[in-house]
Amino acid sequence: MALRLNRGDIKAVLVDLSGTLHIENEATPGAVEALERLKSSGIFVRFLTNTTKESKNYLHERLTKCGFCLKKNDILTSLTVSRQYIENHHLNPLLLLEDAALEDFEGISRNAEEINAVVVGLAPSKFEYESMNHAFRVLMNGADLIAIHKGRYYSRGDGLALGPGPFVSALEFATGRTATVMGKPEKNFFLSALTGLNCEPHEALMIGDDVRDDIEGALLAGFKAILVRTGKFRPGDENRSSIPPTAVCENFAAAVDYILR
After folding, report:
1. Cα gap 249→221, rounded to integer Å
2. CATH number of the domain at 7-50+185-260, out of 3.40.50.1000, 3.60.60.10, 3.30.70.1400, 1.10.3720.10?
């Protein structure tokens, strides 16, 4: 399945990370070399990720160890936009995050007596009863609920694993509150990746393994989008978007071949 793509129409490519470029500490097949070819083509390349288990520094270090050569400033994470939102709204949050992600929130006011927001990311060590119940009580006292993203599941070395979405949904169900979502598939998250590139959405393309958050989100924001059959992809996903993907490719390397052909 593929729509006609004119190479000259693409000024920027946004690349999902986990499940697309790498899975934990392993690059997907051919991804390291393919990224170099894409960067050498003259197309702007940025990385758009909902990864919330670790800070941007941790993530950049992981990618470097996988063999990738990329600039840390070219990585846009949902943690980054969440911090901006917290600062812009003068919030004093309870952070349901792994310790490895807290670096991206250093300097944020966190007075336990004046909490007015609960921020939820992918935090397996925090998703136990007492922590969730504490968050529930804070929300019932009027705090805002902020979901760094609502991913349903993700791919790790031993198979699929629950994302933060089910835990955010549990808090929404229990409190009657609706979370403000920061990362993919939110339109503003995609648009923010084009800042400074002199590029319109229709001139940009997203590559990802999540048909809802990566592909449908990008398409609804006006981007083109290639779904890859790695990471969390499951047979039939290509038919689960309200708008068909621009193309479906075996992996990131094949997607780069498709773009540059």
Report:
1. 21
2. 3.40.50.1000
